[in-house]
Amino acid sequence: MVIYRDEPIHPDETNDMVYAGLVKLGIRDAVVDITPERALVRYNLPKNMSKVEMRYHILWLIAGISPNSSKIVIQIYENFTPLEEVIVSTEDVLAFMNETITYEELEKRIEIRSLK
After folding, report:
1. CB 111 within 8 A of CB 73
2. What is the DSSP string of 63-102?
3. Around 64, how many Cα atoms within 13 Å sit in the side-chain half-sphere?
4. CA-CA distance, 99 to 115, in Å (whole number)?
5. Other C-beta atoms within 10 Å of 38: how many?
6. pLDDT tens for each residue of 53-86
7. Most exposed of 6, 17, 71, 97 (fewest Cβ within 10 Å)?
8. CA-to-CA distance for 16 and 4, rounded, in angstroms?
9. 8 Å CB contact between 83 and 77
């Protein structure tokens, strides 16, 4: 059975931009889904990479590309096993990037949940 669409499929440019940024960071095969409610990135932590350092690179990347998403959700896997989930408001990340809040203040606003 062949299904035909009347409307062309348009890839989401924001998702593509975030994915391209992740590839530059050395992350392959990530899941990226950007909506106004949240920006989600799910990825497998590459070997020999710090999850904390990678967390901040991804936060800056997403906030810079999708500043209008309410929150950022990063789900980290290690060896394809769920490891942790990081949730923070995009507004807080932008405030840090704009030097309105300190690194310590941002740290307090980041929620980290174990997925083990």
Report:
1. no
2. HHH-TTSSEEEEEEEETTEEEEEEEEEHHHHHHHHTTSS-
3. 10
4. 31
5. 17
6. 999 999 999 999 999 999 999 999 999 999 999 9
7. 6
8. 25
9. yes
Q: At residue 103, what is the residue type?
A: Y
For residues 38 and 70, the answer to whether their CB atoms sit within 8 Å is yes
pLDDT at residue 72, rounded to an integer = 98
**How many whole angstroms separate alpha carbon 115 and alpha carbon 87?**
13
The pLDDT tens digits of the residues spanning 6-15 come to 666 556 799 9
Strand 38-44 versus strand 31-34 pairing type: antiparallel
5-14: long-range contacts (C-beta < 8 A, 24 or more apart)?
Answer: 14/65, 14/66
Lay out the sheet containing 111-114: strands in order across: 31-34, 38-44, 71-78, 81-89, 111-114
pLDDT tens across 9-60, in order? 556 799 999 999 999 999 988 999 999 999 999 999 988 899 999 999 999 9
Give all strands (DSSP E) within 1-45, no chain letters: 31-34, 38-44
